[in-house]
Amino acid sequence: VFIAQSRASGSHRDVEDEELTRIFVMIPKSYTEEDLREKFKMYGDIEYCSIIKNKTTGESKGLGYVRYLKPSQAARAIEECDRSFRAILAEPKNKSSESFEHDYYSNNTRQEPRGNTLPFCMQPEFCGFEKNESRIQESVSKRLSVVSRLPFIQEQLFALFDLVPGLEYCDVQRDPYTNSGYAVIQYSTAASAIYAKYKLHGFEYPPGNRLTVIFLEDGSDSSE
Prior knowledge:
Helix content: 25-40%
Number of strands: 8
Strand order of the largest sheet: 2-3-1-4
Structural class: alpha+beta
CATH class of the domain at 16-89: Alpha Beta
Number of helices: 8
CATH architecture of the domain at 16-89: 2-Layer Sandwich
Distance between the termini: 35 Å
CATH superfamily of the domain at 16-89: RRM (RNA recognition motif) domain
Low-confidence stretches: 7-13, 110-136
Strand content: 15-25%
């Protein structure tokens, strides 16, 4: 029932798969498709790689796509690849690629560098992205916070999040003064938490009631 409802918009299976197997990465402008494949082949079987180029000049924009055969491989690449690639799940092809590129730059390049993450400062073409900005990138963890305007039933919420492999616990907390729902979800890996947040944030459960899913600090080293 949950899976059927999540596909109620009429999207086809190939689009669903594409949402979970295609990742979007930032790369040096000197990279070729073979360079991109070489960097990401260790995480799984790659169906194809492509580099986004300026339509007028043919020059690389410093962005690319990698599509894997399995969602688990894409999740592993996002979790384990060097942070300088700033890998995220890509938008489906039927959405505007230009607006997605704009949003990606806004969310991933306009931030204050943290710790040892200075991804492209040795490469001049990327240094401009780091200047005069203070937007902070969302920290990823294995723990999620789930909020709803309606109360949760422990067993049902557990069953929903257990669709994603690696669920360790689901703790539903009740506020005696309000009728809203709040729960803490934890997975065994950050990859599972990323997958769950991507698929279930905004999910209607029950119908008409959208869930809000965000990452919670889990005490682990955020750089990992």
